[in-house]
Amino acid sequence: MTQPDLAARLREGGVEAWLVEAVERLARDSGRSLDPYLTTVGNASVLDDTRASCRCHFVRIDPQGNARVPALINMLTDQIVDYCIPRSRIEEAQGHLERTGSTDKILQLQREATSLFTKIKTTGEGGELLLYALLEIALGLPQILCKMSLKTSQQMHYHGVDGVHARALEDGKLAVYWGEAKLYADVNAAIDAAMTSLAPFLLDTGNGASQRDVILLRDNADTGDPELQAGGAA
User: Fold this and answer.
1) Integer CA distances (angstroms), 20 to 14, 108, 171, 174, in order
2) Which has more pLDDT, 1 or 217?
3) In what order do the strands lie in the sheet with 174-179?
4) Which of 128, 155, 169, 225 is the most buried (most CB within 10 A)?
5) What pTM does this model have?
6) Exposed (0-12), middle (13-18) or buried (19+): which is 229, by Cβ within 10 Å?
């Protein structure tokens, strides 16, 4: 579709309905659930004097009374290609499978995704992968910036927020969600640390902490949808 065709469609159909539909298609939550691995305790509560909602999840217990941590780890391991590899490259591998019947390209992406994780013992990348699953599967918020693929060294973490996801609102605006993961023994300390890390982004007026991630989002967002990509660049 050419750029004038896209512009005409936006005018005729309304950007709101078009954008909402296009972004919803990106979510990988259809038919999937974290319920076998996590249990939600209580209802989401909105913190006083804020628009922040708080949800609490615990790892499920199996019939023998053991936390299902190994099952949770296996599930997260199965997400690494979706988490680490840009959507356009995944779609290329899927197209190769459809044309040839061979999974070799998909397995190549699996090896590449595995190689992106650091070997540092104090890494928080496991928590970042769990954050991805919570946002993508539990909340249906598609990842729009695949930051793991931007790493320049396996022994380094990428900087900035730990996840960039999005949702199209009914008024046609695009809501961007900046995620932060913390693995702490004390939950209150983890929440404090996460809020401290996010505060510069929440308070930023556009030229501070969030500017680098906004630039990365502008230059590296990969939706796997050429039409949506063109609309975002317009």
Assistant:
1) 10, 33, 9, 9
2) 217
3) 143-145, 163-168, 174-179
4) 128
5) 0.78
6) middle
